[in-house]
Amino acid sequence: MLGNISLRWFLLVFSLVTVFCSSCYLTRSKDQWSYTKQDLERQILKNPNDYDANYKLGIAYATRKVTILPSSTSTSTIDRCCLVLRLSSPYNWKKFFFRKAILYLKEATRIKPESAAAHLALGKVFGNKIINDGFGAIRHTVISKKLF
């Protein structure tokens, strides 16, 4: 009789811990970046010619940080094969974010061509190591200096 009660308590505590941990895991993926991105994309869908939303989303993509998750230390053949993919992943994500930033910042400069801040941000994105478009970086930086 006593063993049956302790088993019930164990199952009750185990199920409550499981439900709590799974809810924490599900809410963990929704960080501030997700909400910011959703709000700005919603504003752009409502009004595609909104300069502020395009500029803010472009800046958000340009300043987005990519975190590298720690990998396991096992030396199996599967891990060795996937090592190249793991190492190239942050580079590819940064490239993706910078391309999205270019898209939204170009749209912001199309909407408001006299904005020096958008041209300067676009010049910085073009001039980083990953995109490395020297002509675009120089062009937008010169335009922004003329507008200041």
Question: How would you explain this protein's 3D organization?
Answer:
The chain is mainly α and about 150 residues long. The protein has 2 domains: about 1-30; about 30-145, Alpha Horseshoe (Serine Threonine Protein Phosphatase 5, Tetratricopeptide repeat). About 75% of the residues lie in helices and about 0% in strands. It has 6 helices and no strands. It has helices at about 1-30, 30-45, 50-60, 75-110, 115-125, 135-145. Helix 2 (about 30-45) runs antiparallel to helix 3. The longest helix is centred in the middle third of the chain and has 35 residues, at about 75-110. The chain is elongated, with a radius of gyration of 24 Å. The termini are far apart. The relative contact order is 0.09. The model is unreliable at about 70-80 (pLDDT under 50).
**Structural domain count:** 2
Say how many strands there are.
Answer: 0
Helix and strand run: HHHHHH
CATH homology-level superfamily of the largest domain = Tetratricopeptide repeat domain
CATH class of the largest domain: Mainly Alpha
CATH fold naming of the largest domain: Serine Threonine Protein Phosphatase 5, Tetratricopeptide repeat
Helix content range: over 70%
Low-confidence stretches: 71-78
Name given to the CATH architecture of the largest domain: Alpha Horseshoe
> In terms of quaternary structure, what is this?
single chain
- Tell me the span between the first and last alpha carbons: 82 Å
Give the overall pLDDT as a whole number. 78
Give me the Rg, rounded: 24 Å
Quick recap of the structure?
With 148 residues, this protein is mainly α. It has helices spanning 2-28, 32-46, 51-62, 77-111, 116-126, 134-147.
